[in-house]
Amino acid sequence: QVQLVESGGGLVQAGGSLRLSCAVSGGTFNDYAMAWFRQAPGKERGLVGGITWNASSIYYADFVKGRFTISRDNAKNTVVLQMNSLKPEDTAVYYCAADGGPHGSTWYPYLAGMDYWGKGTLVTVSL
Fold first, then answer.
1. Which of 36, 4, 11 is nearest to 126 (CA)?
2. Who contacts 40 (Cβ-Cβ below 8 Å, separation ≥6)?
3. Rounded average pLDDT over 7-31
4. Helix (H, G, I), strand (E, B) or coil at 125
5. Which of 15, 54, 72, 73 could, after both became Cys, cross-link 79 (CB 3.0–4.6 A)?
6. Residue 106, pLDDT score
7. Which DSSP string corresponds to 7-72?
8. Neighbour count for residue 47 (Cβ, 10 Å)
9. 125 contacts 13 by C-beta, under 8 angstroms
10. Nearest-CA neighbor of 125 among 97, 85, 95?
């Protein structure tokens, strides 16, 4: 059974940074394209960004470009979301997700394409 466990959330002041990690177990990590989504109170879950199995392609939502970075360590079965210059509007529950494929050359981290989800970690950005 594939399990995804997020960590690293918390309370941070605006302008600060947080590093979220997602540990994957129970499957073959190299088979998965990975993604981060977030859901703010009263809003739908939306894409933050995604990364292919070999990091050859990395996608970001427009609102995080230049502030957030996604990376993965296939030896450690982890994917990381480094968040800098955080804003109060970044407050949300952040979810890690895995797409088991198959992945074509035009893979994109669609929410509906994710096969496995973590339970989420809360990020709160204060003024």
1. 11
2. 89, 91, 92, 93
3. 96
4. strand
5. 72
6. 86
7. E--EEEETT--EEEEEEEESS-GGG-EEEEEEE-TTS--EEEEEE-TTSS-EEE-GGGTTTEEEEE
8. 19
9. yes
10. 85
Extract the tokens encoding 87. 């804003």
Residues 102-120 as b or e (16 or more Cβ within 10 Å = b): ebeeebebeeebbebbbeb
The DSSP output letter for 21 is: E
What are the C-alpha distances in Å from 53 to residues 3, 72, 92, 120, 123? Answer: 17, 8, 26, 21, 26
Cβ atoms of 31 and 103 closer than 8 Å = no
CA distance 63 to 98: 22
> Which two structure tokens, joined as six digits, stand for 41?
């109170």
Q: Which two tokens stand for residue 19?
A: 């590093």
Torsion of CA 108, 114, 115, 120, to 10 degrees: 140
- Per-residue pLDDT of 23-56, as tens digits, reads 999 999 999 999 999 999 999 999 999 999 999 9
Structure tokens at 84: 């800098």
Kind of pairing between the strands at 10-13 and 121-126: parallel
Percent of the chain at pLDDT exceeding 90: 93
